[in-house]
Amino acid sequence: MRARVRASIGMKPRKSFLLRMSPELYEALESWAQHEFRSVNAQIEFVLKEAVARRRRAVGQESEGPPADKPDRPLAGT
């Protein structure tokens, strides 16, 4: 259902993949996500988008390719 809605408004389908991580890392992400009122999946996506945006700024490639979505709020402490 969601894929059809995304397609109907011109959005690309989301890529799905398996991610393995240590239980300790998952627990840290889960705790962080709860504090940010996000799901663990949304928190991982948020962290990855932030990392990509920082990398693009660091290497001066901000104009290449589609930009990472702006985070809905800045990282804590920034």
How is this structure best described in words?
With 78 residues, the protein is mostly helical. The protein has one domain. The protein is 51% helix and 0% strand. The chain contains 3 helices and no strands. α2 (23-35) crosses α3 (40-59). The longest helix has 20 residues, at 40-59. It is extended.
Summarize the topology.
Layout: H1 2-8, H2 23-35, H3 40-59
What keywords describe this structure?
78 residues, mainly alpha, 3 helices, 51% helix, extended
What string gives the helices and strands in order? HHH
The N- and C-terminal alpha carbons lie at a distance of: 37 Å
Overall SS class: mainly alpha
Mean pLDDT level: 81
Short recap of the structure:
This protein has three helices and no strands.
